[in-house]
Amino acid sequence: MEEKGTISIHTENIFPIIKKFLYSDHEIFLRELVSNAVDATQKLKRLSSLGEIKNELGDLTVEVSFDEKEKTITILDKGIGMTAEEIKKYINQIAFSGAEEFVEKFKDAKDANEIIGKFGLGFYSAFMVAEKVEINSLSYLESATAAKWVCDGSTEFEISDSDKTSRGTEIKLFINEESSEFLAKARLEGILKKYCKFLPVEIKFGTAEESVPDGKDKDGNTQYKTVTKDNIINNTKPLWTVAPSELKDEDYLSFYRELYPFSEDPLFWIHLNVDYPFNLTGILYFPKVKNDFEVQKNKIQLYSRQVFITDEVKDVVPEFLMLLHGVLDSPDIPLNVSRSFLQADSNVKKINSHVTKKVADKLNELFKKDRKGYEEKWDNIGLFVEYGMISDDKFYEKAKDFALLKNDEEKYFTLEEYKEKVAPNQTDKDKKLVYLYATDLGKQDAYIQSAKKRSYDVLVMDRILDNHFINMLEQKLENTTLVRVDADTVNKLIDKDEKVESVLSEKEENRLKEVFEKAIDKKDIVLSMQALSPDEMPVTITLPEFMRRMKDMAATGGGGGMGMMGNFPETLNIVVNTNHSLATKIINAKKEENKIKLAKQAYDLAMLSQNMLSGNDLTNFINRSVELATQ
Length: 631
Prior knowledge:
This protein is of the alpha+beta class. The chain has four domains: 2-206, Heat Shock Protein 90 (2-Layer Sandwich), CATH 3.30.565; 239-373, Ribosomal Protein S5, domain 2 (2-Layer Sandwich); 403-493, Rossmann fold, CATH 3.40.50; 506-629, Up-down Bundle (Four Helix Bundle (Hemerythrin (Met), subunit A)). 35% of the residues lie in helices and 21% in strands. It comes from Agaribacillus aureus.
């Protein structure tokens, strides 16, 4: 038999489109051809299980090889094979799916859809790298005649009888000059390991050498010899395809190390296994999330029937869940013709919602089952939970019961628990609940200690997203505001309309203010005299909560006009405690220069407590401290 014909297509220009534009990355030609070979093998196994094939199937390994001299790459399977008529039907009629007939024929067989693969455009990805493609195939059907199909990338083909004697299909690509990079062992093996490392049929790529024990020497030491074996590049039964009941913790940890060999072990994981209303399997791991969450993203790998698709899964999982690591596998996620980009349809949205729900359920389960263990993990998962609560209202509604707030004593509280704890002592004159927080326990210690003298509690809010989280809490929590512990003097952080009388007269206060104005000599400050407790600092420097928050938001990429807030000059509030003994000492100092020196020292001390003293000002402060100490 010999026949010539024209490939049935709708436009003469489809080949240039396939070669240049159909796929974003030319390397996936190998993924398409190998996954087609696996589909053909799976079909054969399915037919055998249904009793359609009586003979032994034998070795079903898919083999990938290349010949650098001949400039060819060959993909060989021992699967279902094709007759000449099937080649014409499935290969020549672009985008026709042979799977439709297969489904119809075995529609009553259990899980028939599971092993359906599509022929058509996936095969034609070969022409992105090949100037000519040959197909040699022998169908599993008894008395079938082997067929050979040849095409040089035009719309013309030749089909003829073949001398192939073994069942299956061999596809040979004659690589074009521009694609010679693919005629290298390392390049091909890298592609295979990227896309095919979990395919359900063994993929052989050449051979590999391995050292194996070979007896012992006279001293009892183990001897080794080098043996050559088939280089099987894939694990045919990855963990997500195994029932959770058959797995132990070490299995999950071992698989995580296989996926992320240079990462710390995860905190815990979720094994997904859904078959209604969509099919979804996978394992999602909770990593130890660092404060730089951009580093953590794009670690979830998406598969379709164990074929790697992408690690950009933003349409399948919500943004905040991209901090998780692991694998998702679903045949129901629609892909465009190249299998490379997700389309947002109803199934994707259902999967998105389901994954979010499963994550929330897992966290809630851990919280209720082992509160202490959950608290120990909180520093690593808190950022993730905050991210979810900020970005997803449905997740917030679930997470509000297991999200924790941590105070400076490293005690943890749910949102409701914390409200009950601080309400009696941290409610202001307008009946508003005030949560105090610190972003740096070391730098803000003086302010924290002042708050503690009044039995106020101070939360720790030092994560990268805490500025956004604080704003969200103020929107969600009724009649509640959050104020940084160094945003004002302690008596004004929670204004209870309590007045403290000053030991200085009005005249003395005015004189004290004049001295400090001379000592500070700066325009970008607001200087005020306030009667505080005598045991408070003599001088306190604060930045108003609104201004501080806007600058913090700008620093972490706040939207709108916040970006320019980072460039605004800071207007500092300088509060002099008129009831501190130093205030009286300054007033009573006989020389003006001594008054100014003491005021300057108190101001610099306040600057130092805010980590705002540096350079020449710091040197002068040290020298002045020595001078005052020796007087």
